[in-house]
Amino acid sequence: MAVSDTQGERSLADKLNYLFSKVRVAGQAEYSNEHVAAAIREQGVNISQSYIWALRKGRSDNPTKRHLEALANFFGVPPAYFFDDAHAARVDAQLDLITALRDADVRDVALRTMELDDDARRSVARIVAEISQIRGYRSGGAPGQSSSSPDA
């Protein structure tokens, strides 16, 4: 069961590294390979930290179904995350939202915006889109990526 690494598709290593970077206990550093391997072994699946390291580096890209299921279970994502890029994109969007809501300022704005009527929420969305465009951010993206209008 090889995971594709063709143009336009994310590799297994990319997806696994993304999960390591996003899924963590609030306020703590990302999980280590050793921690993940130990937690998976406690569930009865034999896996080593060096094997996880090889998967993350792309030096091994043909894991067993059992290993992928164990990794998916550890990170709280469905196993389909590793096979279906569209599904992975939806999960990544949810993880990005969770990560953003950990920030107290983002959470405060979101909660206050929920109290507004529809017109006021659209105004807030336009203001945020304009600021993002001025600063070169796309929605949920990195600097330098274009912004889209909330009315689109």
TrEMBL record:
Domain of life: Bacteria
Gene3D superfamilies documented for this protein: lambda repressor-like DNA-binding domains
GO molecular function: DNA binding
Protein known as: Nucleoid-associated protein EspR
Species this protein is from: Actinoalloteichus hoggarensis
Gene: espR
